[in-house]
Amino acid sequence: MEKIINQAHDKYTFIYALSRLFERASYYGLRSLLVLYMVGESLKMPTEEALSIYGWLTASIVFSQILGALLGDLVIGNKKSIIIGGILQAIGAFSFCIPSTTGLYIGIVLVVLGGGLYTPNMISHFGKLYLNKTKLLDSGFIIFYLAINIGAFIGTILMGYFGEKLWWNYGFIVAGLLMLISIILLLTSKEIDNTQIIEKDIHISQKIIEVLTAFILVALFWAVYEISGMRFFDLEIKFREISTLNISKSLWSSLNSVFLIPISIIAIIVWSLFYNTQFIKLTIGFILGAISYGLLFFIPETPSEQHLILYLVSLLFLSISEIHIAPIIHSILTQYTNPKYLAIVISLVFIPTRFFSYIVGIFNDDLYDNPLFSIKLGIIIMSVTSIALITYVFINKKSSIVQHPSNS
């Protein structure tokens, strides 16, 4: 590790992160309300139909992001795409206030199109803030990731309260207003000038290897995360039933966020002061992920309260793992992609992730019936990936020593 000097986060980092926080609060809040709204008194839709529509919404976002990235990088620019996308999402949220299937479908279409414009261009635009201070890229994206998680947490709780305790329309109105706040924040930020970015002397073949590796790693991580989620959810229910601790149901469901937020803050401080390569961080992430799943393996099918500590430690390690993988992937893509096409590349990373999730979904019932098998699978994948990353880091370090031998 080396100490970082002459590089610092500026106010635009926090403006963009705060904007993303409000946008995610709006989006996840809407998602938490949507199925309940469709099956409720307003639309009285059958549960299967409501879940099918919800599935189409989440799947469509992936493809709309590719379209939004193409428009942002090649036609109207990243910042304009973010603003237009935010406005469309806000109008979409307000459209849900129309108590009819027409209002529902208009809202869904606008939220999908708006999210497609907003997300890849926002990530790209944020990453470009750091292209002349790449040693802070990792900590910058951890700040961004922290904002996403806080936004999702606040949005789900806030909209749930307005929608269930008061009235659905209040939840949708709040979601639209949060989205508009996100856009207002962006209007105070600067446009990124690509001509001012200092080009790094990196061979094209190395760039391709780094980007493809990032694609594979992010897909593997989220696939394993989804597989292991079966076991975590299973244990959460069982510990909730047997625990004598006075913990609410909502807090049990939010334990991951409880760990993720303080760990993110610590990681931001550490990686803002000290620099280490992105692949070192990824190695740390996958090793800790393997340990997290390994700890779960020691919890029996029918746990007792004494196993709760193992469960909590496993969640802690998984949170540290997530912080050293999910945001770092975007850091790699930002550093090794031509800035002119960064949003496009970022939008494409969702395809392998969605593909792996689809494969996992096929075996959902089998994995749920046999949660220990899902943990074994998670341990194997995380361990093999860790060994591959350690080998990669070792070879790169050895190659660097050969190319730059000591003068002594």
Describe, in plain words, how this protein is organized in 3D.
With 408 residues, the protein is mainly α. It has 2 domains: 8-190, MFS general substrate transporter like domains (Growth Hormone, Chain: A), CATH 1.20.1250; 204-399, Growth Hormone, Chain: A (Up-down Bundle). Helices cover 79% and strands 1% of the residues. It contains 16 helices and 2 strands. It has a two-stranded antiparallel ribbon. It comes from Aquimarina mytili.
Layout of helices and strands, plus pairs?
Blueprint: E1 2-3, H1 11-39, H2 47-76, H3 78-95, H4 101-128, H5 137-166, H6 168-187, H7 204-242, H8 249-253, H9 255-273, E2 274-275, H10 278-297, H11 308-323, H12 326-336, H13 342-348, H14 350-362, H15 364-369, H16 371-403
Antiparallel strand pairs: 1-2
Helix pairs in contact: 1-2, 1-4, 1-5, 1-6, 2-3, 2-4, 2-13, 3-4, 3-6, 4-12, 4-13, 5-6, 5-9, 5-12, 7-12, 7-14, 7-16, 9-11, 10-11, 10-16
